[in-house]
Amino acid sequence: MVASGKGGVGKSSLTVCIGRELARLGQKVLLVEMEPGLGTLDLMLGLSRGVCDLSDLLSGGAALQDAALPVEGQSGLQAILAPIDGQFSYEEEAFARLMKELSGQFDQILIETPPGFGSAFSAAMKAADGTILVSTPDRPCLRDVRAVSDRLDQKPGLTQRLVINRLEVKSFLRRRPLMDLDEAIDTAGARLLGVVLQDEDLPYRLSDGVALLPSSRARQACRRIAQRLLGQQVPLDI
After folding, report:
1. Degrees to nearest 5, angle at CA 195 with 81 and 135
2. pLDDT digits (tens, 9 = 90+) for 113-145
3. What CATH number should be reported for the domain holding residue 167?
4. Does residue 136 belong to any structural domain of this protein?
5. Is 61 among the domain residues?
């Protein structure tokens, strides 16, 4: 489950980039997009929306091979796109059952969850065994993440890890929106999984459905995050 306290923090971009890196590490990966009517993963992954989406799979109106779209040029990576119907509401048990079924066919499933505490959040929380909390390095965003973390605490055993996104080191040191990253961790209430530096190239390449270059700072950071998700010990390297 990839979650945030507010929109616009780069959650979709990180879901795509971490998913790509997990696939490059040999994992069979499924990305599940949940926000009804507002999906962007098709653009970021260069996919055609096709005729089936997550709602069709949940209703039994489509098979997995029709709804899970393979990403061209990225072996091992597939995505299920969000319902086109902006009024779609999730049923927790049905979504959890589907994710449990799919977990036997994939090594990793990343569920991109809309901000807020609607039916999508509740369904994802029911299904997930871990959470990646995404925040930018500022107090308002981190405070919202803490509210999400407190809600997630209601599920025993659900791991929570924090990713600080869009860190511009020079600006951070000059403006000091926080004393340091330790304050970010304390505010969010979750263990740090990774830090992704600001990368001006990222939105342009993702909007064209193109993978980031190997030299991209964001791609390198997401590679390290993917490695940590797989239990490898790698430095933050900020």
Report:
1. 60
2. 998 889 999 999 999 999 999 999 888 889 999
3. 3.40.50.300
4. yes
5. yes
